[in-house]
Amino acid sequence: MNAIETENLTRVFNGLRAVDGITFAVEEGQIFGFLGPNGAGKTTTIRILTGQLRPTAGQARVIGCDVVNQRERLKPQIGVVFERQNLYERLSGRENLAFSARLYGVDGRRVDEALAHVELQERAGDLVQHYSNGMKQRLLIARALLHRPQVLFLDEPTKGLDPSVARGIRRLIAGLAGQGMTVFLTTHYMEEADHLCQRVAFLDQGRIVALDAPEQLKVAHGQRCLKATLNDGTHLSLSLDDPSDGRRLGELAATGRILTLHSAEATLEEVFIKLTGRRLLE
Known about the structure:
Layout: E1 2-13, E2 16-27, E3 31-35, H1 42-49, E4 57-62, E5 65-66, H2 71-74, E6 78-81, H3 93-104, H4 109-117, H5 133-145, E7 151-155, H6 163-178, E8 182-187, H7 190-196, E9 199-204, E10 207-212, H8 214-221, E11 225-230, E12 235-239, H9 243-254, E13 258-264, H10 268-276
Parallel strand pairs: 3-8, 3-9, 6-7, 7-8
Antiparallel strand pairs: 1-2, 1-4, 4-5, 9-10, 11-12, 11-13
């Protein structure tokens, strides 16, 4: 069953088609990556799917709710973490969540459960202004989980975090999906999407240019090759689809010149460049 469905979803701002007729579906319990550079339409799409922005055309349903006509029914079913960290800096972590729990109408006991889920129990009494960026991001996720949503929307959750903290956030996301939650993840970090997502969509200038499992995209659009290190220290890349490279590989093997040999698949970044002609961080 699909947790999210869109058909010809479009949003126009002053003549600019920020989201341009996109159609996709996300299965329940799936981590779905929505990938593209800044300005591609990722955040606009999230704002539509969470009922904060009306589409100019097209339709979208999340957990069976029409995002335009059933927004009040939709809100309790979703959690949202936007790129901007909108926390109350002069309150503690626990106080931030307690305030949100009252707004949600959630039992206050859920606050400590959410803090434990993101491993912030020991710092729950500290003012948020003394939190690191990674701790603030975990607190934002805890806030989004207070009411036990069925779908979690994450907009660039690891942007600006150091690699070790980002890995912790990714483990948390994977754990949520492992418990059956559907996660809609926007990012321009292709390695993050490759590691986490069962399916990804490439968004470029408001349009979906590719949609599939990461492995399938790399097979369909990448070049199959081998990375060889010769015994004189030379490094070579040999295409498995090029007959001349195949002959050269045979010659090198026959003469015993190969020290190491490894397969090397295309990266999602390389596939994106091939399909769009540009890099994510231009």
